[in-house]
C-alpha cells in the first residue's frame, strides 16, 4: 500500500481529523512519522517500543543454524493495543 492510499483510507474513516490538512501535507506528515518509527526500530537492538493508543513493536534476535553456522536473525512483531470494551463512535451519527 502506498502512503497516499493510507492517508485516503484514514481520511475516509475519520474526515474530521483532516479538515484543515491538504492531502499532500498529510502524506508528508505520515511519511515523517513512519520514517521516525523505522529509525526507532532500527536503533533498538532488542526489546519493546510502545506507542500509546497504537500498540507495541517487539524486537527479538533469534539464532538460526545454517550449514553449521549460527546466524542471528532479527524479528520485529507488532502487537496492536487491545480494545478494552470502548465503544467506537459511529461516523453516521
Structure, explained:
The protein is an alpha+beta fold and 93 residues long. It has two domains: 1-43; 45-83. The chain is built from two helices and three strands; from the N terminus they run ααβββ. The protein has a three-stranded antiparallel beta sheet, with no helix packed on it. Strand 2 (55-66) and strand 3 (69-80) form a beta hairpin. Helix 1 packs across helix 2. The model has no long low-confidence stretch (mean pLDDT 89).
Global mean pLDDT: 89
The largest β sheet comes out as:
3 strands, antiparallel
Q: Widest sheet: strand order?
A: 1-2-3
Structural domain tally: 2
Low-confidence stretches: none
**Helix/strand/pairing category:** alpha+beta
Quaternary structure state of the chains depicted: single chain
The total count of helices amounts to: 2
Topology (SSEs and partners):
Blueprint: H1 3-13, H2 23-43, E1 47-51, E2 55-66, E3 69-80
Antiparallel strand pairs: 1-2, 2-3
Helix pairs in contact: 1-2
Amino acid at each position: 500500500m502506498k502512503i497516499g492510499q493510507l492517508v485516503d483510507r484514514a481520511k475516509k474513516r475519520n474526515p474530521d481529523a483532516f479538515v484543515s490538512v491538504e492531502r499532500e501535507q498529510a502524506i508528508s506528515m505520515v511519511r515523517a512519522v513512519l520514517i521516525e518509527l523505522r529509525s526507532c526500530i532500527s536503533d533498538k537492538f532488542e526489546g519493546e517500543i510502545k506507542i500509546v493508543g497504537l500498540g507495541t513493536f517487539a524486537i527479538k534476535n533469534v539464532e538460526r543454524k545454517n550449514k553449521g553456522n549460527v546466524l542471528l536473525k532479527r524479528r520485529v512483531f507488532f502487537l496492536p493495543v487491545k480494545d478494552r470494551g470502548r465503544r467506537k463512535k459511529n461516523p453516521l451519527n
